[in-house]
Design goal:
Strand order of the largest sheet: 3-2-4-5-9-10-1-11
Helix content: 25-40%
Shape: globular
Distance between the termini: 49 Å
Strand content: 15-25%
Structural class: alpha+beta
Largest sheet: 8 strands, mixed
Length: 409
Amino acid sequence: MQPIGCAAVTRLPVPAPHEKARPLAKGSVYPAKDLCSQCGLCDSRWVAYVKTSCAFLEQRFEAMESGAHGRSRDLDNDDELYFGVHQRMLMARLRQPIEGAQWTGIVSRIGVRALESGLVDAVLCVGQSDSDRFTPVPRLARTPEEVLSARVNKPTLSPNLEVLEQLPGSGIKRLLAIGVGCQIQALRAVQATLPLEELYVLGLPCVDNVSRKGLQTFLESTVSSPATVVHYEFMQDFRVHFRHSDGRTETVPFFGLDTPKLKDVFAPSCLSCFDYTNAGADLVVGYMGATFGRQWVTVRNPRGQQLLDLVEPELETAPVTSSGDRRAAVQQGIEAYDKALKLPLWLARLIGLVVERLGPKGLEYGRFSIDSHFTRNALWVRRHHPEKVEAHIPAFARTIVSRYRLPEA
């Protein structure tokens, strides 16, 4: 069976090891240069397709959505404008959470069930190095144990697609790929060339990754004990939640972050990205459109429903909700970020309490986060790559950004 979106595509030959297209040497200057997200494609023989697959060389949202889902998003539908093509949106959490998972472990459980059911032969996921819990190590997991060992997000740039190099001759014909937007955009672009019979894509919403060095700067400027942080997440209560190795949880209000120090710590690829919601994935699981304590689950196409079917009986589910008004908070945030303001911690905590009680929740919180990042990123692209503005900012992002006043570029 041909993967969704490839029925009308002529299958191109897989670049062979002896051909001219070889992985770029580690440390090379990649084609996207400073905008490279280190997705790993150029570290495989699929570097041959980089000019038409790299999200930072050529944006192709409409073609990607049409290929993956049968149509592109409806820009007149506000939910699709923000969250992309979808058949269902719901909130969920596992009734029996996976021990050690970042939240309840829905993504890991899907990976495990996909292997156990025989739906796939392997799961492309990201483990960690033996020496550093935040250094990502992409792998093709063949067992549930290998999938579970990769639980917990790694908030650093990860070369997931380098493992495509292992596919030829591996015997893997059915693959579940877990990844973030830039990785999935490149994966979809080369999908027809992969030596696979089936490809399923489980996406994670993603913004503001950093290099390992940048992550250290963030931790040292934000949290009490950087060396013991196991994972962290920017959550719907307008706080960053840190989990420490001793089980302790620490929270820091968004408004208390050291913006002058952190303003330039995020990767340029993330500052020029408009795929927060992972538009090309079959199924997306994250927190951004859910109320606190649940995950936001978006089914984009029948394959996404197939993946959700693997675990839905194990989930406690609820309809998505939306309340509050994000617009004033977004506009104020644009100006505060641009001026790199840093508030006293007592004031940041007070503002955080007020916003948590009266501010946007559910899907409206998701829109708040998208608006905040899209306006920031559009301004960044205008200032740092004005030659790319017309081609790089997609139509849906332009519509969203046009609703706000941006500082002069």
